[in-house]
């Protein structure tokens, strides 16, 4: 990697899979977060966000747009979001990220194209006034 990056591992507070212990065991930083609330990041912004099932988890609790706006706030320009979720959820997420002028692409799951879970990779564009 050419430049140092800030990565924060965030586990949904009400997740069925509590992976924060594994994150700490590997020497990474992490926290619990309810994505319907603002995320305390002071004084940092991040280069990479990985959201595994976050939008499917919160789709009945808060608006997807609010979660993406919060991600936009804490993500550095040209930062990347990797979102793993069901294809129906990712289609909605991609429509919003495209409206935010992020460059995004939906890719197949590593087990193949017939898996209903897909991966969305979105890059926040660098905009100037």
Our Rg estimate from Cα atoms comes to 14 Å
How many structural units, i.e. domains? 1
Counting H and I runs of at least 4 residues, what is the number of helices? 4
Share of residues in helices: 25-40%
Strand percentage lies at: 25-35%
Major sheet size, sense and barrel closure: 4 strands, mixed
Shape: globular
- The assigned structural class equals alpha/beta
- Mean pLDDT reading: 89
Spans of at least 5 consecutive residues with low confidence: none
Written as H for each helix and E for each strand, in order along the chain, the element string is EHEEHHEHEE
CATH top level is: Alpha Beta
For the biggest β-sheet, the strand order reads: 3-4-6-5
CATH architectural group: 3-Layer(aba) Sandwich
Q: For the terminal residues, how far apart are their CA atoms? A: 29 Å
According to CATH, the homologous superfamily is: Vaccinia Virus protein VP39
* CATH topology grouping: Rossmann fold
Number of strands: 6
